[in-house]
Task: structure prediction
Amino acid sequence: MNADEFNPGLLTFLNDSPSPFHAVKSLSAPLGSAGFTPYNLAQSWTESGAESETLYVTRNDSSLIAIRRGSSTITECGLRIIGAHTDSPCLRIKPQPDIRRAGTVQLGVEIYGGVLLAPWFDRDLSIAGRISARRPDGTRASLLVDFKRPVASIPSLAIHLNRDIHKNRSINPQEEVVPILCDGREHSVESFRDILLEQAESQYPNESLAEVTDFELSLYDTQPAAQVGLNGDFLASARLDNLLSCYVGLQALLNARTDQTIILVCNDHEEVGSTSSAGAQGPFLKQVLERLTKNREELSATLSHSVLISSDNAHAVHPNYESKHDPQHRPQLNQGPVIKFNANQRYATTSDTAALFRDLCREAQVPVQSIAMRSDMACGSTIGPLTSAVVGIDTVDIGAPQLAMHSIRETTGWQDPAFLYRALLAFFERPA
Result:
């Protein structure tokens, strides 16, 4: 499958997934259409239909594990697992966000993950996520909301009032990153929860709701994902890190022709350390794998034959900042997936797992690149080392190359999602 065939579905997925909750919804829909059975860990294996050959389970509505069971014996052939994450750095709305200043209604927000703050100014922002609401009979409803339209912005301070802005800019998130919601003199706004109640009633006309009690909501840029560049060489979007890998892994899972048992894991909370019940450092994956096997000994035998590909985007060399990369490790856009190396185990790649991935790329006729950070710069990390340590599984950390990681709008090569798809498809389809 070439990029022009593959990428339209990716663009739609990115636009439909403004929050981790919406991302899991966007992943679940095609799984359901393909016959995957929803599985509830609270039920027994047989009661919930988990003996089906295809199933998926979610946690917190923001993490997902999907499984295609093959005819091969897993204790002898192991599992093929692709891991990614559903969350992205963003601005999360605080529990008591209502602010009124200078005739405007504003929202208090806090920083989620390592946000590159400057690009959030002067954008058309909307709001999406999950709310908890109380019905008139006292029961509780958990609903996804998405305003879709621009409802907020964070205007920059005019250069005339800050002449030194280009010399050494620093941004105070408490004082400067405060979105404006509306003109408080022209509109009577009781509280942000009242606004949410009105939005929920609009989206769910058949629901009877008394009040919104709590919420997990984020701001997002309403500019849609797009093919950009003079010759359409690039793909620009919010949340490429790491919804790109979630979508590519899903397509590989759905389309693979294999007798192996293959699994897609999409965890939440990677951008804030993964320490949660739904994160890679939590018990979610291990609990699901325990259901696949009869006992601890069988699980251990299965994992000894298994491999995890942790797929999370990698830093492409920026043409304006080439010196930020090690001279021998400068991945480029449209040149294929990147194997990530770090001597201090910030990535879980070993020589054996790197060699495996190189073989996969060669078989799929996909170019492959490598990255190691400059020795005088800190290295980031992802779910690979955490999952490898928690579960005990051989792992390689890889990802599509991209620019502007953690910005409100990121860029990858137009060819790179299809390259990654072909490599991950080869991983699922390779004989044991």
Observations:
- Residues 236 and 428 are 28 Å apart (CA to CA).
- The mean pLDDT is 95.
- The longest strand covers residues 90-101.
